[in-house]
Design goal:
By secondary structure, the protein is an alpha+beta fold. The protein is about 60% helix and about 10% strand. A 5-stranded mixed β-sheet has the order 1-2-3-5-4, with helices on one face. The longest helix has about 70 residues. The chain is rod-shaped and about 115 Å long.
Amino acid sequence: MMSQEKSALILARLGGTPELPMPARSDVLTAGAAAALDFGAFMAAWLSGDMPQPPWLVLLYTAAMGMFLAWRHHFPLSVYALTLLLHLAFPAVALNYHAPLDPSLGATYLSMAQLYTPWVVLLVALTAVATDRPLPWSATAAAVGFGAWTGLTILNGLWDVPNVFLVQAAIFFSAWLVGIMAGRSGRRIQTLEKSQAEAQAAISREHALIASELHDIVSHAVTVMTLHAAGARRIIKGDPERAAQALTVIEATGTQAMDELRRMLEALRAGISPYPASSSLAGIDMAEPLLESLRGAGFEVEWRVEGTPQMLADSVNHTAYRVVQESLTNVAKHAGAGAHVEVFLHWQPGSLAMGIADDGGPGRRPEQEQQGFGLIGLRERVAIVGGSLVYGPTDSGFQVQVELPLGIAQPDHS
């Protein structure tokens, strides 16, 4: 991912004006605390008479550094470079307000013991570099900071102070190491959060598919059973043989629905996917019983196929079956008895186009204009396999149009 520093540079070159990101509240509070600690350390030394600089100057200096520090996680390298320069430049600024020089040093600078240096702000900036930037960059930043401060130490004639270089090295290394550990911890947390989000999304998708399966199974079965039961009740006295046939359809439909529900529940109890091996999933070639169920309920159902049937991926084949099932279920619910229904399949190179349309029938019901959750779930199911679905009312009835990819690489005959 391109860093914000690089993005800002590119926008500047293109003549754009990048929007400065706002720091988080925690970044502002940390920057303020670091500047306050630096100023507090100066005031403690100033009150004891060890510091010649006026407090107002140090206050302005620490406030400016703290303000830049708030953006350390947005521009870690830039903020660190700026704080390091200000950190090293302050002795020169302090010369304008100098006390008598330390005669034992004979140096042009004040004794380092008499100079305020904003250590906390610098170390917090280095920690941000180690947290947010790769190891080579952060190690180089720490080495540059240590080298610059070491040069200033030698320039001020303090190179012979016992352990001064070890103390400085320990300070820079500690800040760098804290940043490395914080960065690793943050990345580990982000990885865990990403994994948790992906797992939750997978669970949500699984729940949606289960809900869609349950809807398809139960809605179709109950609709068919209700229609045949109503028909059997009307003709049981005048035509008991046809009534018996209707009861047979009810029994077969109920048995099939119970078998499918039992399969799903057993799979869920076992903690596995409720979708079995693809070979046992219903496909478009198994749609004939759906058509017969609707014909037995008094609808005229026409099945038309154009083109040469081709092999479908199992998930696409099952989706095509569910399209026919849900569409015919809606016809049974909303179209009037005796409605004419057409199920149309058009095999094309690389895709299957489907259409299910009814003319509303003589007893069309007003609720046909309503859109239920079944079609909404069906659109999601079709989208999962890379297809598209549109539906809506016609002049007299309702239609569903679907286009599905084959889902299987086809041989090149060119």
